[in-house]
Amino acid sequence: MANDIAANHGHLPDDVAAEAIAGHVGRFWDPRMRTRLYEFVDAGADGLDPLVVAAVKLLR
Fold it and tell me: At 25, is the pLDDT very low, low, confident or very high (cuts 50, 70, 90)?
């Protein structure tokens, strides 16, 4: 799901896209979903769009 959000923001500059993804995740994702995303990033983020990883850094 996070990669889909990144794909929808891929037309933006990377820093703006990361902020938009972070905003979306912060507003609309349940805390349990955010926790699982953080855990996935901590485990290496295999297959995760780099924009999502950047967004997670902003959220933390």
Answer: very high
DSSP assignment of 5-54 equals HHHHTTTS-HHHHHHHHHHHHHHHS-HHHHHHHHHHHHTT-TT--HHHHH
Tokens coding 46: 């295999």
Cβ neighbours for 5, distance < 8 A, ≥ 6 positions apart: 21, 24, 25, 52
Is pTM beyond 0.90? Reply is yes
Q: Rounded distance, CA 46 to CA 29, Å?
A: 20
Quote the CA–CA distance of 18 and 3 in Å, as a whole number: 12
Amino acid at the residue 58: L
